[in-house]
Amino acid sequence: MDTNKETTDEALKETQDQNEVAEAQEEQAPVAEEQSAEEKLKLENTALNDKYLRLYAEFDNYKRRTQKERVELLQTAGKDVIVSLLTVLDDFDRALKATENSEDIKALRDGIVLVHQKFKTALSQKGLKEMESINKDFDTDFHEAITNIPAPSPELKGKVIDEVEKGYTLNDNVIRFAKVVVGA
User: Fewer CB within a 10 Å sphere, N or C end of the chain?
Assistant: First the structure.
């Protein structure tokens, strides 16, 4: 990019020098009528080159600015999600500390369930949704078949019998396909 800027700057300087020479020639010419058609075309050509170089420089600046904005956007895109998950991380830290001294398994399980629900809520607020797959027709747009097994009943043929790994959508776009077992 720096070479483009240097090239653009050099071209602008050259055009400005040509403009100065053209202006000096205009001052020396006694009357505009005496200028030949060739000189008029040269002046017009110089003016058009100047316009072109200025437009090129402006476009080059626009490209650099938009690229910089895009990089900044990508760097801060996940910030909202991370900030919303920090409270869940704090809860996990407290849960780990509580496991050191606790012998009550039911209380630990209840705490883990609460943290799990909070985590799912935080993700769903950002647009994440779980896919429902079991007993649904197998669809390659949402499911990835791990294996086929004989269907326990005729109505389960071609349907999802078991879900090995949940699938998720983010704002209605699949971000992870559900890994499923399909009835054959």
Answer: N
Instruction: Tell me the β-bridge partners of 162.
Output: 181
Contact present, 46 and 22 (Cβ < 8 Å): yes
CATH fit for domain 129-184, picks 2.30.22.10, 3.40.50.970, 1.20.1090.10, 3.90.105.20: 2.30.22.10
Q: Could you tell me what percentage of the chain is helix, strand and coil, using 3-state DSSP and rounding each to the nearest 5?
A: 65, 15, 20
The domain spans of the chain are 2-76, 78-126, 129-184
79-101 and 105-125 helices cross at what angle (nearest 10)? 180
Residue 96, helix vs strand vs coil: helix
| Ramachandran region, residue 16 (left: φ > 0; alpha: ψ -120 to 50; beta: rest) | alpha
What is the pTM for the complete model shown? 0.53
